[in-house]
Amino acid sequence: MLQTKAHPEDQLQDILDRIAEQAHALYGQGKVASYIPALAQVQPRQFGIAIALVDGSCVSAGSAGTPFSIQSISKLFTFVLALKLMGDDVWRRVGREPSGAAFNSMVQLETEKGIPRNPFINAGALVITDMLTTRYAHLDIALLGALRRLSDSPDLNWDMQTAKSERDTAHRNMALAYFMKSYGNFVNEPELVLDNYCRQCAIEMSCAQLAQATMFLANGGRDIGGMQEQFLSADAARRVNALLLTCGAYDAAGDFAYRIGLPIKTGVGGGIVAIVPGVGTVAVWGPELDAKGNSVLGAFALERLVQETGWSHD
Q1: Active site residue 72
Q2: Interval 181-188 mean pLDDT
Q3: Which candidate in 63, 72, 99, 295 is catalytic?
Q4: Domain containing residue 115: CATH number
């Protein structure tokens, strides 16, 4: 087993180089997200991976510096903001159980009276964005500011073309919002919330930036970059990681937990971020998705990485 605490950079670099080479053999086994026109135009055969360690070092391979649309990975950050602001009051309007259904499903909402199963499916993320829209006059700017600080990347931004593309085709998300509003679980006008939601999904980050931005979850809630602050309490960070382990990969969360065993969040832009508590964070990107909307190459790379390192969520 790799000794991750003592001078791991050279060993990790060798591992990442091998994984990147092996991942290329999987090109063509998935498809880019086509239901969002801007994502349908992304060049499919790309792969990047970056590891940020709690000692401040970082190793990477492939296209780790190429920005991509983080999409549903943004749900992790909005959830953390809501948890910081509202604490356990968050759970009055959203659950914390795996859904077992597609990320944009409406089925459970009717049987469960407008309360989404968790913050990482679309309905749950819309409720979280509704909460934050009430608290922030300009939520999009507030979220972007937090991500810029966490990633030490002051130029971080969202892609306006992708945001518009998502907003123009957000019919199902709009239906989810109005459906929850009919149950009294939506405060603001759905149109305003959808504007914020589509902009947050269209934020672009590289693997290296994403790994840095999530470091606080591997480090007991404390950021090790330019902020050097306790961004989240250690107890809250542990709870966020638990939710990522059980709910972070849509209706494939159980399979990911079995195969990879780390807290993760996936996005239909092809990104996946994984947390190794006490060690560091891993971000992978491959735009080709499987049938459930998760990166084919990203899932492969994370599974190979934990096999090589012995890393786990313990």
Answers
A1: yes
A2: 97
A3: 72
A4: 3.40.710.10
